[in-house]
Amino acid sequence: MPDIVSLGEALIDFIALESGVSLIEASGFRKAPGGAPANVAAGASKLGSAAAFIGKVGDDPFGRFLEQVFREHGVDTSRMLFDSTARTGLAFISLTAEHVPDFLFYRNPSADMLLSASELDREFIAGAKAFHYGSISLISEPSKGATEAAAEIARDGGAIISYDPNLRRSLWKDEKSAKEGMISGLSGTDIVKLSEEELAFITGVSGLAEGAHMLMKLAPSVQLVLVTRGGDGAFFASRRASGHVPAFAVEPVDTTGAGDAFMGAALNQILRRGINAADLDKLKAAELEEICMFANAAGALATTKRGAITSLPTYQELQSFLAKRIH
Ligand code: ADP
For a surface tag, which of 46, 139, 240, 307 has the fewest beta carbons within 10 Å of its beta carbon? Predict the structure, then answer.
């Protein structure tokens, strides 16, 4: 049984061959496995966690490719589903001059959107120590109901629930539904991991501490807020502790998936330390700093190579990176 279960979309990322160009200018694209929840499972698995990914892909070569790559990265793919009516979702991504990804999605609908609650293996999910999901699968039914049902099963089973509200404006009907949908996902979660931009979008405030406390007010279940800040590192806040943890200086090549590497690493650390849902809000600042430093290292290493999954570090790689940077 896996310790970490991540549910949501697995997609093909088509990444522009050139850096620093728009999608209009890109001359071609290279295929890479992607989808934030799948990346989180792969990130945690590469660090040694028993992690599973639950999601639907098309019964097509891209879906088979994704399953194969996740499996090669140690992810339990036994509960992945292959849909014969819809294709695997695609995301075309170019990295602008600022190394910020620019996205264009193909999903009309894609297989990931068709996962339904009746297809879930309840026993498998109930055994998880941590359950992670994002906001893309909350955009429409039936994947919304499937995500909510799975989170509830995991919560009833005592898992730490972790949520990454990803802001992908073009996938929602309008800004209002994006905001409401991302907020609805907060309900019942213990950990929220998001970027500064997403925090400001959801809460309407720009201060990190203020925004984090607003999230805890919006959803009383929220015990820990992790804000990833690219080259500025991370900010954490619980009801009793908060702090900034600086990033590691690296030469970034592709920041796609850095946040997922961060989250996979944070969950890996939380479980390695034997922390469970009831302990989260008792964690001291020093321990949260250590967890964020480890996650920052995973995020930093993930930016040094192209692609989201291919660049994820192993536990060994991460430890030797930390040893060199800290001592
Ligand atoms: P997301 O992929 O969700 O936008 P970020 O880009 O904030 O997430 O990256 C997640 C984490 O990865 C950051 O908190 C940081 O620790 C690390 N990271 C990202 N970009 C850089 C960078 N340019 N230099 C060093 N670390 C980085």
Answer: 240
